[in-house]
Write a sequence for this structure.
């Protein structure tokens, strides 16, 4: 047989021994720790990805929650503002009304007071006019009745008028 | 900006790789020429002899030029174990190992075509005694294999320790280079073929993959630490495929064996024929693995060696640039084949294991 395709017993023996030793040593000192480390790292990466995914979901949830919260807060704020505006309008309206009322009341009081004062003044004027008239009348009468004849005439007139 | 710098570094790496290959090719030619010069002068250059010699195993390690490192010869014969240096062959022949006879304590030994033979006192091969000779020598291939084993141990134990040191961190350096390969073996070879039980076979698959790959690569280096044709040696591929055969059949589950021995849909009278066919199937699968790896790597080496031999066939330096250009091309191709064959061997091993442990739900 061609020596090329005739296995030598020696090389078969040494290959078997060498390969067996290599396999044992590598399996114990290389493949086992390396495969363990690789698996460990893969598990770690997978875990990390899962956790990152969960964190992302949680984040999205929180964000949407925040959004909802914000929307609600905004709505509440709008409501509060609206209410405040209403209250303000009401207060302003009430104040206006009461001010008007008060003004009207005060004007009324002033008018009454003015009328009172006017009445008092008029009464005073009337008194003065009456007393002045009396004085004038007294003076006129005094002038007229300085003459005895006239006094008599008057008495006569008056007596004529008196019809018995 | 960033992309362009990546591109530049890629081009630079490519240039570096090309440079390395050119050097390797040139080097292999020079080493080859130094070696062949003595044999080549005067006599006709025998390409096939030279090529086959380079592919075959050897009892000495060629370092550089005419320097050879003798290796221990260990032979077991009917009279017992004997150990001596391969330099002893050369010592007694005044420098040429091929011609020398070593007078051992049990027999006289001689190297014929780099195989140890028992010879009688006249120097003729004693076929009867030689048939009882088992050669357990530490040959060139064994040394090369041990170097690869040490290299693999250094690489992967250091990588494994960097996993411990840098626990939980991103891979770095050698670890970063090796990790994708390990993950590739796991995710693209083991997992799709074996399924969820792949974890148990990972050590075997990883060892087979890196053992074949690194030995394919070392085989491509034409000078000293390389130069052996380990994965292109039928003995090595035989052992690897027998390991596959054993692992596959030891792990075969009930369904696997029942399919072989009591095929449900087959008439009983065909069963004996069925058993023969299944047995052939069991053997032929790893047999194909053995031949595929052996043939691919050996063919690559033969082509590279033949291309370089062209220079000596034409006996002209003018052919050298052409030779080297083709050798560079072949070396780059072989680089791909080195990884591809390691991948295929591992993939098919995983596939066979997968079919043996596959669970069927009826």
């Amino acid at each position: 047989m061609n020596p090329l395709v005739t296995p030598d017993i020696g090389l078969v023996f040494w290959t078997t021994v060498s390969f067996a030793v290599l396999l044992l040593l590598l399996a114990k000192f290389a493949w086992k720790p390396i495969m363990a480390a690789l698996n460990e790292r893969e598990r770690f990466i997978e875990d990390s990805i899962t956790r990152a995914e969960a964190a992302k979901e949680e984040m999205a949830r929180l964000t949407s929650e925040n959004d909802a919260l914000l929307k609600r807060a905004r709505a509440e704020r709008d409501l509060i503002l609206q209410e405040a505006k209403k209250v303000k309008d009401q207060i302003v309206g009430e104040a206006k009304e009461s001010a008007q009322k008060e003004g009207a009341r005060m004007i009324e009081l002033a008018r009454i007071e003015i009328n009172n004062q006017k009445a008092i003044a008029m009464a005073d004027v009337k008194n003065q006019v009456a007393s002045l008239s009396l004085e004038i009348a007294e003076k006129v009468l005094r002038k007229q009745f300085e003459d005895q004849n006239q006094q008599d005439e008057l008495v006569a007139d008056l007596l004529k008028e008196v019809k018995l | 900006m960033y992309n362009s710098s990546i591109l530049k570094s890629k081009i630079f790496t490519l240039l570096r790789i090309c440079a390395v290959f050119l050097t390797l090719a040139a080097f292999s030619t020079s080493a080859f020429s130094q070696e062949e010069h003595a044999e080549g002068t005067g006599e006709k250059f025998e390409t096939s002899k030279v090529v086959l010699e380079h592919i075959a195993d050897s009892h000495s390690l060629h370092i550089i030029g005419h320097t050879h490192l003798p290796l221990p010869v260990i032979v077991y014969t009917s009279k017992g174990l004997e150990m001596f240096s391969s330099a002893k062959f050369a010592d007694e022949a005044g420098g040429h190992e091929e011609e020398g006879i070593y007078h051992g304590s049990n027999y006289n030994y001689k190297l014929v075509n780099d195989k140890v033979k028992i010879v009688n006192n006249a120097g003729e091969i004693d076929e009867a005694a030689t048939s009882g000779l088992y050669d357990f020598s530490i040959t060139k291939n064994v040394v090369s294999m041990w170097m690869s084993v040490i290299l693999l141990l250094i690489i992967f134990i250091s990588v494994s320790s960097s996993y411990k040191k840098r626990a939980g961190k991103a891979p770095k350096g050698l670890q970063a280079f090796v990790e994708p390969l390990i993950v590739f073996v796991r995710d693209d070879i083991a997992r799709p073929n074996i399924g969820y039980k792949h974890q148990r076979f990972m050590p075997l698959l990883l060892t087979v993959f890196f053992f074949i790959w690194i030995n394919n690569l070392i085989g491509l280096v034409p000078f000293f630490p390389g130069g052996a044709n380990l994965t292109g040696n039928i003995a090595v591929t035989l052992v690897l495929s027998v390991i596959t055969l054993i692992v596959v059949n030891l792990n075969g589950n009930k369904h696997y064996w029942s399919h072989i021995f009591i095929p449900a849909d087959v008439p009983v009278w065909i069963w004996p024929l069925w058993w023969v066919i299944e047995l052939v199937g069991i053997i032929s699968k790893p047999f194909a693995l053995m031949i595929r790896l052996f043939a691919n790597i050996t063919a690559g080496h033969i082509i590279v060696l033949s291309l370089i031999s062209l220079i000596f066939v034409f006996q002209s330096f003018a052919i050298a640039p052409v030779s080297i250009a083709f050798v560079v091309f072949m070396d780059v191709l072989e680089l791909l084949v080195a990884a591809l064959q390691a991948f295929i061997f591992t993939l098919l091993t995983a596939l066979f294991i997968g079919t043996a442990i596959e669970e069927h739900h009826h």
About this structure: Chain A has a mean pLDDT of 91. Chain A touches chain B through 34 residues (CB under 8 Å).
